[in-house]
User: Fold this.
Amino acid sequence: MALASGNWNDLKIKELRPGVSRKAFTGEGATLAINYFVPGHAPAPHHHIFEQIAMVLEGEADFHVGDEVVHLTKGGIVVIPPNVEHWLVNTGDELCVNMDVFTPKRPEYVED
Assistant:
């Protein structure tokens, strides 16, 4: 068995679209990602097969999950079920940083 290990500070930040970027690390069963949303970024509604647990580390955001909107500030957590349309909107005037944990793993998050 190959042990997955590394240092978060050595991982590259990948720009996804203007105003949105992320770092990610994956194991065999789950993926951890940190996302960075600048104020005024373009939201991107989407859905996927993964369960997603999201926590705001800095700033504030509205998480649109299905027909609900949850406003989260630092430390706020929401679970996004699989196959439910969702997106995040930075509602503050500072960078919003959120951490996501996905199961099962999302290997495409760490492929170059």
The chain has a mean pLDDT of 94.
